[in-house]
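Fold it.
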Amino acid sequence: MSDAAVSAAEAKRWRDLRKRFLSAVILGPLALLCVWLGSDPFTALMAVCVAVLTWEWVHLCGLRARELPGLAVPLAVLLAGAAAVVERPLIAWAVLLLGFLLAWSVAQWSRGRSGVPRQPSLRLALGVLYIGIGGLCLIELRHDNQAGRDNLLFLLAAVWASDIGAYMAGRLLGGPKLWPRVSPNKTWSGSLGGLVLAMAVGAALTLVLAPGSMVRAAVIAAGLAVATQAGDLLESAIKRHFKVKDTSSLIPGHGGLLDRLDGLLAAAPLAALISLAIGYGVPLWR
């Protein structure tokens, strides 16, 4: 291969890095600030994110979020989130499940009507669960007044470290593909790089956040990294199903908000389950 071809290949490999960096510099501090300031600012951020996420999902399904049946998705997720915010978790989960069933029913009833494309009704309704489960878990984590801030910061750090480690290791090392039929760009080296960086960041955070076992923090971070990568693969499979490259063009270098939060939506339920198992007010790594 000529020097020019090598240079072109290198440029192509890193061509989206600048856009990714600029987007992360803008969005990352905003998320951290809302988490740090308390549950109310974080709830407001979650409301905005849910509105965008559900809009993207409905748009992927070829529908409009401001009218039925597409409107059923944001309504169900936002109502469930409102119940979680006022600390009615059982009602929140019941509303989410009911919203899924109602969205499915409304979509089935609307199929083939004027202006509504014929498509599987379950496809639309699954957006309620896909976005709603992760959203409710994030709200529940932050509303722990004693450990919520530290737990959510730990979760975000593990997810971001997994993404960064996977991106850098995959670009630098390459090698065998992780699951080429679903995501042709992801490699085993990238997956391992994300896992290692997440474990290192998780262990280091015990020196910054609440003290605890560095080994346990690394293990918890590893589990969150695996969930993050599984969520990334799931999002790739979803986009392949819908035959799109990105869920939208909202964020330069990242596509849509679903493209950016796919790992977090998958890792949040695991973090919430760990938090539930160890008890209220306890950091995940203790």
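The mean pLDDT is 88.
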